[in-house]
Amino acid sequence: MRIPNIGSIQRSAVIYFVIIASFLMLVTRLFLMQIVQQEAYDEKSADNSIKAIEQIPLRGIFLDRNGEVLVSNAPAYTLRVLPSDYDTSLNSILETVIDLQPGLISKILHTNRIYSKYIPVRIKRGIDFKAVAWLEENSEYLPGVSYIVEMQRGYPAAIVGSHVFGYTKEISPEQLKREKDYYNPGDYVGHNGLEKQYEKFVRGIKGFNYILVDSKRKEIGKYNDGLEDLSSTKGQDLMLSIDADVQRIAEQELKGKSGAVVAIEPKTGEIIALVSAPDYDLNQFSYVTSKEFLQKLYANPLRPSFNRATMSVKPPGSTFKLMAAIAALDLGVITPTTTIYCGGGFTFGRFFKCHGGVHGSLTVIHAIEKSCNTFFYNLIYKIGLDRWAEYAKRLGFNGMTGIDIGEEVPGLIPNSKYYEKIYGPKWPRSIMASLAIGQGEVSVTPLQLAKYVALIANNGNSFVPHVVKGYIDDKTNHLMPSTFKEIKTGIDPKVFDIVKEGMYLVVNGAGTATRIRMKEVNIAGKTGTAQNPHGKDHAFFIGFAPYEDPKIALAIVVENAGFGATWAAPIAQKMIQTYLFKDKTKKLEQRFTPEIKPNIIGASLEN
After folding, report:
1. 382 within some domain
2. 450: CB partners within 8 A, 6+ apart
3. What b/e string do you get for 173-182 counting C-beta neighbours within 10 Å, with b at 16 or more?
4. Do 480 and 601 form a contact (C-beta atoms < 8 A)?
5. Domain co-membership, 18 together with 30
6. Co-location of 345 and 410 in the same domain
7. Same structural domain, 22 and 142
8. Quick one: 12 and 57 in the same domain?
9. Is the peptide bond before 120 cis (omega within 30 degrees of 0)?
10. What pLDDT does 13 receive?
11. Which of 139, 220, 236, 415 lies at a CB distance of 3.0 to 4.6 Å from 389, suitable for a disulfide?
């Protein structure tokens, strides 16, 4: 009888154990895959057989305060390639057909290599119909090449508005990292101005069409007959406070000049017009912007891309005399009947000449009318530098206004601490004389000046300057108004009445702006001519109308032009005339496109 080999038995047991253990592991794995993790694997399977095609929503359009369309949407063809299917040997052919620089497609694909090869890459936006026809005709020889219809921005109102509207451009890699939950490579995003500040309002909600594909990613039909598709939702339409007619006039008047115009409705803080000149053509950013255009834009010494209305700072000249008058009256340093004698100048360490010769004894009202430097030289020393600077801040200087187009700078109002840092505790007090007439280190923006004159016009109260009145509710077609912070200076309203009387005489008395006097409406204002060490003086004008019930307040700056009365004040006159007396009998329905219904409920359709 043969005795079994113990070692052989042990080996068999091990083999059986391995077989049984493997079987149990396989059964367990199958159980996990088919029962426990079924949903996850179903989703993964669907990913391999269903392709989601993103539907880009229409951006919300911009309307002016009367319903005229300022920024619209226009269809554009965009060429895309799918890296997983695309044959790079087609690069040179496509570049010739759609007029691209040689090597650009390769560069674009290289930049997008970090993303999934199954995500289409936008190659060029705005290809012409001739190229689209060629793509259709040769589609079977162009694997991975397709085109889609997207919307680009249009500007039907013949308004430039470059520094107000902003533009859209392809999202940068840095932005994509921050907002990857919504955007994909190649998406367009708001850049500058309202397009950027209100991006989340106007971009809309993306939709998706689900398509069945085979193992080679070839489309074979709709998934579930399209029942799972999600429609995109259009972005919200914004109603702006801009008046298209006034904006057009301001742009025309500044054509060929450098400067800025800001007009505000005093009671509400709504921006009626905002222009920075020179400007640039926003249509150039609707498609893929050419390098030649960008090179010319950024190389231009006049800097068209720079927003002079909110970022250019200059001494405001005589327009700042009103601020000293307000401070002195509110503090009780002077009364409406206080007189100061002008003998042709003022001496404090040195002699400061007066504008316009000898004025004799003047009250504050007539000092404003005559723009007497001597009166205000005296006044700032009576007020004191720090109290003067405090009132400047209360009237909106030395800080951001908070305007909703984004870009702005705070300017500078010097005080004693400022001069102590520069000169030490014994800083020369004679510096103060120049500050009183808006010269020296004082620097303000045109927007700040407009806010300042709006506060004067409305007796020290207004709202943060803003461009957007609200958005249009798609379901109700109601205007949903935006809310902005109220500004209260806390200054006695009677003070403003006195200053406004002086401004009235500047135009309607024997002041410096009598050439813009009008029979139809009483304008109140103040001219200014700021010294410019690099050329001709800068021309300033601030004002409001009607004097009895202000509806528009303006600040105009024309650079390197000369006198404010000659160059800036006439622009204000034309804008006031346009705003207050334009034909209001036009039917609103004629000014709308099919993009929005004309009967906006709750909108302010009158000036």
Report:
1. yes
2. 262, 263, 264, 465, 542, 553, 554, 555
3. eeebeeeeee
4. no
5. yes
6. yes
7. no
8. no
9. no
10. 65
11. 415
Residue 161 is encoded by which pair of tokens? 């508005």
134 plus 271 within the same structural domain: no
Residue listed under structure tokens 């919300």: 60
User: Hey, what are 344's tokens?
Assistant: 């042709």
Looking at the 3D structure of the chain, how many domains does it have?
A: 3
What pLDDT is stored for residue 19 in this prediction? 73
CATH number at residue 320: 3.40.710.10
Ordered alpha helix ranges (H), 53-161: 91-97, 104-111, 129-137
In a domain, 586, yes or no: no
Which DSSP helix (H) or strand (E) runs through 375?
A: helix 373-383
Q: Quick one: DSSP state of residue 601?
A: B
Predicted TM-score of the model (pTM): 0.82
pLDDT of residue 599: 42
Written as six digits, the tokens of 157 are 């109102």
Does 230 share its domain with 309? Answer: no
**Which of 220, 240, 260 is the endpoint of a domain?**
240
* Cα separation values, 489 from 168, 412, 461, 462, Å: 38, 19, 6, 9
pLDDT of amino acid 361: 96
Interval 457-511: pLDDT, tens? 999 999 999 999 999 988 888 899 999 999 999 999 999 999 999 999 999 999 9
Q: Concatenated DSSP letters for 221-286?
A: EEGGGGTT-B--BPPPEEEES--HHHHHHHHHHHTTS-EEEEEEETTTTEEEEEEEES---GGGGT
Q: How far is CA 149 from the centre of its chain?
A: 27
* Residue 105 within any structural domain of the chain: yes
DSSP 425: T
Residue 91 shares a structural domain with residue 214: yes
Give the pLDDT confidence of 25-72 residue by residue, as tens digits: 776 666 665 655 555 545 444 455 787 777 888 899 999 999 999 999
Alpha carbons 243 and 580: distance in angstroms, whole number: 11
The CA dihedral of 356, 360, 366, 370, to the nearest 10 degrees, is 0
- Distance between CA atoms of residues 80 and 121, nearest Å: 5
Tell me the C-alpha distance between 342 and 357, whole Å: 9
**Among 234-243, 276-285, 373-382, whose mean pLDDT is lowest?**
276-285
Q: What's 138's domain CATH number?
A: 3.90.1310.10
Q: Is the pLDDT of residue 598 over 50?
A: no
Q: Are residues 213 and 273 in the same domain?
A: no
Take residue 132 and report the two structure tokens written for it.
Answer: 């689209």
- Across the chain, mean pLDDT equals 87
Query: What tokens were used for 405?
Result: 């187009």
Please report the pLDDT score of residue 65 as a whole number.
95
- Tally the C-alpha atoms within 13 A of residue 32's C-alpha that lie toward its C-beta: 6
- Which tokens in the block code for residue 289? 């912007």
- Does 45 reside within a domain? no
pLDDT at res. 194: 97
Least confident of 12-21, 130-139, 163-172, 296-305: 12-21
CB 261 within 8 A of CB 571: yes
